[in-house]
Amino acid sequence: MRKSVQFECRFVSDELRSAAAAMQPTAIGCLDALRTGRSAGGEWTGWFDYPARRGWPVLDSVEQFVRKNDTFFDLVIVTGIGGSYAGARAVSEALSHAFAHAMPRSSRIPVVFAGHNLSENSLLELLDLCDRRQPVVNVISKSGTTTEPAVAFRVLRSYLEKRFGEREAARRIVVTTDAKKGALRALAREKSYRAFEIPDDIGGRFSVLTPVGTLPLALAGFDVRAMMEGADSVFAGLREATPAGAGAAAVEYACLRKAAWDAGKRIEVLSVADPRLSGYVEWWKQLFGESEGKGGLGIFPAGFLSTTDLHSMGQYLQDGVRNLIETFLVFEKAVVPLAPLAQDTVERRLAVPAQNANSDELGYLEGRHIDDLNMTVTQSAQLAHADGNVPVFEVRAPRLDEYHLGALFAFHETVCGISALLLGVNPFDQPGVEDYKRNLFALLGKPGHEAAGAALRKRLGR
Ligand code: PA5
Questions:
Q1: How far apart are CA 219 and CA 138, in angstroms?
Q2: Which of 89, 117, 146, 441 to mutate to test the pocket of ligand 1 (most atoms within 8 A of CB)?
């Protein structure tokens, strides 16, 4: 069996450990509630064990669609926001060549993201890119009404129709949305766009294993089957009453987070050591922020990119307000087996070069792999932050690839579900996000929101 996600309390006080240990039976009860759909928000627990329960046939249809259509495009544009884009972005950023945009050619079809902001610059520049490419657009929105992706999609749809005509534009558009409800579903029906479903019982931030994540990633050539297998390997350890492997680790981690909360910790920093993991951190921030942060409760999720941030926020971590916990996300083999110009998986390494002179005083590092130095930075930071009274945890995966990213998705979703339930909040709603969405509709003058719009404008003094 392949090694999956491991969890370790690296440097944690005995009090925190014993408080967490005492919570284990309650946490296992929460896990059981997630498994059986009897938790708060139980109608949204369809993500739990999704690969085994429903995921494989859905993945078959995604892959079949991609096989039939992978000949006419050389750019994938994903239009979505929040849970409707963050997972696909996490994987594509983690596993793509960091300088693909500047390379003369790339072995992979680039995937770019729109609709997660309202920057006119971004959309104008995206149209510039489209002019030089053969794009396909995957618009993703569970509600089908979220303003940012809806606006971006209208811009892209108009562009495609103008450039290719309605019929060819329709071939280049694929919709992922609710099975029945929402403006996007209605549009897909009207225009005969190919459409994939976001299941009723899976919310945006828990949907990466559904076509929300798998379709754009498969279109761009990522191994979504391996991603699903990785997730399945974690869920396998959670199927029984007594969790095993990564499942048991998820329970342990959730208990430690709750014990830390009870001890006054209010911020969790997820620390990663490669810029290609920034997208994963963003996915994680949304998952925990939207799931736990309600009713005046919840640990605030923050990202930390090593070594960059060690030279900026590192000071605060070391010595600022002691209300932090820090989790290091570590990959034992972090060098992605990715060749920029060919479809091979050559293992590549880079060491500090030997030189005759030692004027830069780096002679003692000659021959050491850069990634080994990076791992040493992680260890140094763990020790330093522990000395600064920050409880330090480590989530560790054997290598950075689709399989282990899938395993991490399942692992973090489960930790998040249990953590929120231990805290006493419904992990699956997001009333705060809905508040902002309603205000935006009202202020933009969406029909049906006139009274709210007038009241809000008065408050703004406009
Ligand atoms: O997790 C969630 O449910 C939200 O963050 C949504 O993903 C986000 O608001 C986008 O919503 P929609 O997919 O309906 O456009």
A1: 9
A2: 146
For the chain, which residues make up each domain, given as ranges? 6-423, 433-462
Which residue has a Cα nearest atom 5 of ligand 1? 82
Give the residue among 409, 419, 397 at the shortest CA–CA distance from 51.
409
User: Residue 462's pLDDT is what?
Assistant: 75
Closest CA to 336 of 116, 107, 51: 107
Just give the CATH number of 6-423. Answer: 3.40.50.10490
Residue 1 has a pLDDT of: 58
Q: What is the pLDDT of residue 345?
A: 55
Nearest to 113 by CA among 135, 132, 131, 134: 135
pLDDT of residue 396: 96
Which of 93, 197, 290, 413 is catalytic? The answer is 290
**Ligand 1 geometric centre to CA of 142 (Å):** 7
Catalytic residue selected from 68, 180, 311, 458: 311
Phi-psi region of 449 (alpha: psi -120 to 50; beta: other; left: phi over 0): alpha
Q: How far apart are CA 409 and CA 231, in angstroms?
A: 7
**8 A C-beta contact, residue 424 and residue 357:** no
Residue 74 near residue 136 (C-beta atoms within 8 A): no
**Residue 191 is a catalytic residue:** no
| pLDDT means over runs of 10, the chain (462 residues) | 83 94 96 95 96 97 93 94 97 91 78 97 98 97 93 98 97 96 94 96 97 97 96 93 90 97 98 97 98 96 97 95 97 75 64 92 94 96 96 96 96 98 95 86 91 92 82
For residue 276, CA distances in Å to 59, 103, 307, 334 come to 26, 17, 13, 10
Provide residues with CB under 6 Å of ligand 1: 81-84, 141-143, 146, 149, 203-205, 290, 430, 433
Residue 408 and residue 369: Cα distance in Å, rounded? 26
Name the active-site residue from 191, 333, 369, 437. Answer: 437
Bridge-based pairing state of the strands 135-141 and 173-178: parallel
What atom of ligand 1 comes closest to residue 437's alpha carbon? 9
Helix 246-262 to helix 224-236 angle, to the nearest 10 degrees? 70
From residue 461, how far is each of 166, 438, 444, 455, 458 by CA, in Å? Answer: 44, 19, 15, 10, 5
Q: How much helix, strand and coil, in percent to the nearest 5, is found in the chain?
A: 55, 15, 35
Which residue among 143, 151, 435 is best mutated to probe the pocket of ligand 1, counting the most ligand atoms within 8 A of its Cβ? 143
**Rounded to a whole number, what is the distance in angstroms from the first to the last CA of the chain?**
63
Per the CB < 8 A criterion, the answer to whether 246 and 8 are in contact is no
